[in-house]
Write a structure and sequence with these properties.
It is a single chain. By secondary structure, this protein is mainly beta. 0% of the residues lie in helices and 76% in strands. The strands form two sheets. It has a five-stranded antiparallel sheet, with no helix packed on it. β5 and β6 form a beta hairpin. The protein is elongated, with a radius of gyration of 17 Å.
Length: 89
């Protein structure tokens, strides 16, 4: 049992520079909260995840950059992913 809350908000179009080039991309803010208590043999083990991030999408290309910060089981993490090359064909 538990809950998942997934919120997305569209932001502005902005120039995003990544190794594959500079793109006019829309920023999408993402907030995810996962709160589950799975049951194994009658023993509940709480599972929590909080994730905040921004993804930038360019028309005709797709995802060009993603930044995320979060907390999983009390451990903090962050990640960045960038488009390094692409071929539209």
């Amino acid at each position: 049992t538990g809950s998942v809350i997934y919120a997305l908000r569209a932001g502005d179009v902005e120039a995003v520079e990544v190794p594959a080039g500079t793109f006019d991309a829309i920023a999408i803010d993402t907030d995810i909260t996962l709160d589950l208590t799975p049951s194994t043999g009658g023993v509940g083990i709480p599972l929590t995840l909080n994730l905040d991030g921004v993804q930038w999408f360019a028309e005709g290309v797709g995802l060009v950059r993603s930044e995320s910060d979060g907390d999983f089981f009390g451990a903090s993490f962050s990640s960045v992913a960038e488009l390094t090359s692409y071929d539209v064909g």
